[in-house]
Predict the structure.
Amino acid sequence: MTTAKLPDWNSLQPGDALPPLELPPISRLDLALYCGASGDHNPIHVDIDFARSAGMPDVFAHGMLSAAWLARLVTNWVPQAAIRSLDVRFAALTQVGERIRCTGTVDEKFEHEGRRSVRLKIATANASGGIKLSGEALVAWP
Amino acid sequence: MIDRRHIGHQLPPFQVEVEKGRLRFFAKATGQTEPVYIDESAARDAGHPGLPVPPTFLFCLEMESPNPAAIRELLGMDYRSLLHGEQGFSYHAMAYAGDTLTFRQHIEDIYDKKNGALEFVVRKTRVSNQRDELVAELRCVTVVRNQ
């Protein structure tokens, strides 16, 4: 793959979809690697004994792992320097074994402080369409 | 209930050096295979001075605080009752491997819903680099489930 180039702002329309990002089913190894790489050592994501002591049936994925995938969705579409903001809400837990799909659509197109901009709606969902994270990203052209 | 007098509380600033090995490990853990994020020559070819810090990794660097539990301890929150509710980033400048970033955190707000069954702690963090340029502002909402 090559580094993302900015799409032509003039040709973008609200409702346009970004190429989706599909992830393989989440494994316990994925959570262990993210625990180490992220520095988020909360045991609830990797230690089933701890998770059960907190009343959960099993460990579950770090919300910020899904947020990192949403960031990949956007940086696959535009160079990172064009991203002005990224905001996510954690709507539901992402479970081991779930196959997550990241999607984004152009929600609004506008000029802000003289810069051509778009607001994206972004989300992650499991195979049955259950929303896990939802949010938005603001992208500005130089 | 969490004492609302902590609204506005500032934590001691801390500095974190961005290590390129950490960035490559993060790329692996998040399935990132774009050369710009793992190969320094590809990053330079794309106009970057080094491996870029990806958008959400600033949150990870924030966890390198000398005491990541500082707010939990200050507010007396039980680890087991906490959920990450929201996370936001506003970006002002790119950060790169080799940068030394300064994190300035404060408690922006504390509020509750459902008659106190859920409490929300909003932390805001300003991140600047070794040239004192603003890199990003982070907003973290932690949800406390009171039984």
